[in-house]
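Weekly puzzle thread! Below is a chain. First person to post its structure in token form gets bragging rights.
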Amino acid sequence: MSSILPMEDPQWLAVDHYIADHLLGADPVLDEALERAEAAGLPAINVSATQGKLLHLLARAHGSRRVLEIGTLGGYSAIWLGRAVGPTGQVLTIELEPAHAEVARANLERAGLAEVVEVREGRAVDVLAKLVDDGSDPFDLVFVDADKPSNPEYFAWAMRLTRPGALIVVDNVVRHGAIVDESNDDPGVLGTRRLFEAMAAERRVSATALQTVGTKGYDGLAVALVLDEEEGGGPVTWR
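Winning reply:
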């Protein structure tokens, strides 16, 4: 199995810090959330500060009131999204590991978002299936940042749990450039390629992806807009 080695450049880090210093400013709540996650031994695979702010702005500009997140970790991105939907909005975030969920709930409580963000434990595919079975109201934005081999399945579930006009954002889709290395058989790379194939074949979305560099190395994210019947073929329905 091929490995994926993270790549960093000192200038990427310097630019990320410059952007954060000028446009984000100090945020003790978010800083402490990262510190508590590190102290609890969680892996440092959360989105960066600039990426979190991008998620926040996307949700606000889109007017998202109901947000679904697949992959909670320590709750860092959930704080960004919870702040975006406001006190009358709702974020549902799914986490497999109970220890991670415990840290996330504590961080969300300290951020004043315990009533806005619900952390639901379990395998994401099981939680997503139950949401469909229970007739969940559609979500306005879905952020996928969990195990990469399952990205195609998460995208399929997101299509079932959204409405026309919703956004689906998937993180870590460039894999340090490995998506174009045909010899790379890393499960995360293979899953990400299947995600691109699924997005390309899905007539009900218009999608793109961007390469990114920064404190998280070389990677990227995909953004898909769920289309209505007139824009992109058949209607988005529960199926």
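Puzzle host: Confirmed. Bonus trivia for everyone else. DSSP finds nine helices and seven strands in the chain.
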